[in-house]
Amino acid sequence: MSVDQIIDSIFLIPNESKALLKENFVEVRYPKGHILLRADRIEKNIYFIQKGIARAYADVEDTEITFWFGREGDAILSMRSYVENKEGYDNIELLEECALYELKTANLNKLFLEDLHIANWGRRFAEQELIKTEERLLSRQVRTASERYKQLIKDHPDLIQRVPLVHIASYLGITRNSLSRIRAEIM
Amino acid sequence: MSVDQIIDSIFLIPNESKALLKENFVEVRYPKGHILLRADRIEKNIYFIQKGIARAYADVEDTEITFWFGREGDAILSMRSYVENKEGYDNIELLEECALYELKTANLNKLFLEDLHIANWGRRFAEQELIKTEERLLSRQVRTASERYKQLIKDHPDLIQRVPLVHIASYLGITRNSLSRIRAEIM
DNA sequence: CGATACATTTACCAAATGGTAAAAAACTAC
DNA sequence: GTAGTTTTTTACCATTTGGTAAATGTATCG
């Protein structure tokens, strides 16, 4: 996933604006297992995944609850930090060695107030994250864990290969036991 | 909730921009039980609640699943229609007689591309909806139905008075039976 | 390759939840 | 106020899920 692909997939903007925006994408690399964002901090950067896979989890009474997976092209951010400049609930762990684009929130915010096209790009970015988040919420509310597991296999078959099942069970809101049962049923 | 309060609570913008935006708020009234938005349509308007209360529900195999409640100050919109101009999953039912502000999405989109301040207002609007949606998702993932019910009483005590318990049970992801059990336990 | 650690499956029982139906309570409309 | 409708509670049993622990399978590293 190139910088251009990422920017264009969100909203098409004129070349001058795009150049201003592109300047802020800095490529960084981290190893598998690296904790990129922490729940107890106000995070100053957001990221886009060029290559690799990550998860977000919340610490709840001595267990981790995974509530998001991200892969190539996805944005990594603590929404709370990004939007309200407060501590969030999300820890981000890289599940593979990752190549990322790093952007400073402060720089982005400055551009938003200076450039109409970039402001609209930022609006579209938030709107698209909103749609994705609502979809996750709906799927959780409307479908059973078993249905959502099947959906996951269908939509992202590689994810089951690349991610430990413990995290997938947690993501589905069930125990590893129950996930094993579901997997056994299907075959 | 006045138009000014609603606009200002999202993002402060200069008076000229605000005047342009305000022109688009049209007050409308509908009776209790009115279906404001439908899942099978591309909705062309969004609303803010001046007075009253509403719920969003999805039709799933001959049952309705409530996944959102809105009250004074909240925005009512089919995210899918607003963001992607596609049919959404949400039906909106007014649970009381409501006074609403209606805005045409097309007019808003035009303003977004013409006025930097309004574009940023639209960005903040999406960002704030994003935070709220993520919070609902997290709460669902992390807390039990019982905990979430207690939280609901604490945060919005009036809601339990104003909304039939069937909808609250559905919102919490449990049956009316289980909600009754929870309520019985608490006392 | 082998030893160790970690992840996953299976089995068992306990606890929580759903479904149906009937009783009680609350709300509507005349 | 009363009859009728709708909503909520309660009780029962069937089903699903969780928790613990042991067994199997898979990775990792010297």
Automatic annotation (TrEMBL), chains A, B:
Pfam families: cNMP_binding (PF00027). Residues 28-114 form the Cyclic nucleotide-binding domain. InterPro entries: cNMP-bd_dom, cNMP-bd_dom_sf, RmlC-like_jellyroll. This is Crp/Fnr family transcriptional regulator. It comes from Rufibacter hautae.
